[in-house]
Amino acid sequence: MNDKTKYEIMKNRELLKGYHAADVTAEETDQQQKLPSIPCLQTSIATDTIKLPTDYEHLPIKGTILDLIKNRESRRSYQDHPLSLLELSFLLWSTQGVRHFAGHKNPVTFRNVPSAGSRHTFETYLFINQVEGLKKAIYHYLPEHHELELWDERDDFDKELTDALCGQRFASSAPVLFVWASLPYRMEWRYGLKAAKYLLIDAGHVCQNLYLACESIGCATCALGAYDQDRLDDLLGFAPGPSFDRHYTCTIYAAPVGRQLPT
Q1: For every one of its 263 residues, what pLDDT tens digit does the chain have, with 9 covering 90 and above?
Q2: DSSP for the chain?
């Protein structure tokens, strides 16, 4: 192992600890300097939105929490059958649903997953192939009012998405692919140089809720960390990085969802 590689490994290990040598001399965070943050929710770009159903009592929720934890696993094969809009709604609510707001000058959201300082840096994007009532396209979740907006009308993303997912066709062809993108500044505003560690921890909270929610309704998922950063960001229209723009956005994590195959 050469010295350059060793140095990069050591930097990554310091990130795991949330420690940076620069912390000792780092300036105050933007919050400490009483600077405004960016909004805790992204503004819709669409004129029309799709209201998601919330009558979850009609879903056949199965098993106890003990069953769900015990049976949860990564599954890469799915039925060739569309998800219902109610099922998709439940999965979105379970992973990023907003319970309530707090604060006035720099409001934050309290959601169904924990986040360091309630910063919740993630936005959810969906590559939809088969969902009842929705055309094949790319969508963005609007958690404040539990709605979807059409992010990109294109329905020919199959090859580009497969390439962006490093050839993982099972994921690009699934009924739905969840992609979580982060606006890092939401976290950096409060935590400065420690933000990256907290942001990545938060990603695990989100995806674990997806696993448990899928298991409860007979769906399946598989967390994906292997993807081509530039290609996936480009598919969603994010500017290439790195950038210090406060609204800089990049993809962090992905997970396909489909119905479980019969056992």
Answers
A1: 899 999 999 888 888 887 665 565 578 999 999 999 999 999 898 888 999 999 999 999 989 999 999 999 999 999 999 999 999 999 999 999 999 999 888 889 999 999 999 999 999 999 999 999 999 999 999 999 999 999 999 999 999 999 999 999 999 999 999 999 999 999 999 999 889 999 999 999 999 999 999 999 999 999 999 999 999 999 999 988 778 899 999 999 999 999 999 97
A2: --HHHHHHHHHHHHHHHT--GGGGTPPPPTTTTT-----SSPPP--SS-EEPP--GGGS---S-HHHHHHH--------SSPBPHHHHHHHHHHHH-EEEEE-SSS-EEEESS--GGG---EEEEEEESSBTTB-SEEEEEETTTTEEEEEE-----HHHHHHHTTT-HHHHTSSEEEEEEE-THHHHHHHGGGHHHHHHHHHHHHHHHHHHHHHHTTEEE--B----HHHHHHHTTPPPS----TT--EEEEEEEEEEPPP-
- Domains of the chain (ranges, CATH numbers): 3-259 (3.40.109.10)
pTM comes to 0.95
Amino acid at 234: D
Which tokens belong to 84?
């219902």
